[in-house]
Amino acid sequence: MLVAPKQREIFKMNGTARAPLTSADATEPSTFDEAPFYLRRLREEFAVRRRRNPRFSMRGFSNSLGLSAAAVSRILEQKRVPSLKTVEMLADRIQLGKSERRAFIRSSIETLHRREIDTLCTPPEVDAIENDEFSVISDWYHYAILELTFVEGFSPNPHWIARRLGIATDEASTAIRRLIRLNLLRVVTLPGGERLVKTGEKLTIRDKSKTSAFLRSFQKQILAQATESLDRTPIDERSMTSLTVAVNPERLAAARQMIQEFTRNICDLLESGPQRRVYQMSVALFPVDRGDSKDG
Fold it and tell me: What's this model's pTM, rounded to 2 decimal places?
């Protein structure tokens, strides 16, 4: 899920810890580590003017930007994201160069998009679907499309999706329509255009005690992809591990529980930081012998 960075309570500037900037006691602005570029640049501009004139106030800075002191304080405290019109005016007022102006405006738009997505779509931790719903989306690429929405540079264009996944454009278009119909994807209109947003953080089958031809077909597709990956994917971009072991069947239930916890931990690890590709992980535990022979 796309999440806007959390504001820190203490931040640093020139190695000195300071309290967050407020309209009442505004001093030299500081930089949050996660702050978007437009915000860092505004704080830097205020700091430069304060160094030139220690008596320079937040009110004077606000007047030079063409905004009220309250509005500027809310922007600097990350309580408000300026609109496109406002951020363009701010870029003009602090006289940014061409490349810096482009980065300034883009960072504001990206922050605004994250806020809009979080407001319009706050997904549940786990979204469960029924077995009959799964039958409609049992092809592997439906789930790859859901995860692609988190990848940097994602485009809702079916041609782009088809190219990334190696499927036909018609398959991508049909899959998107199915996912929207099942409320697993949502179309969100933002200032930069329409976006596809996954409505749930994680997806699972509600009744895991039952299997079906569709579930078996899906698992076969995943195993086939793993086989293809052996020849297609460089070894440093994949991991294939196998183990043959004599087991105590009474421990299988505990082993399945451990596998579930392991996959959740791996998921949390791989999802941290920038997401640039979609991977599939499959853990298979099955017998290779035929069991006890009744024929002696």
Answer: 0.55
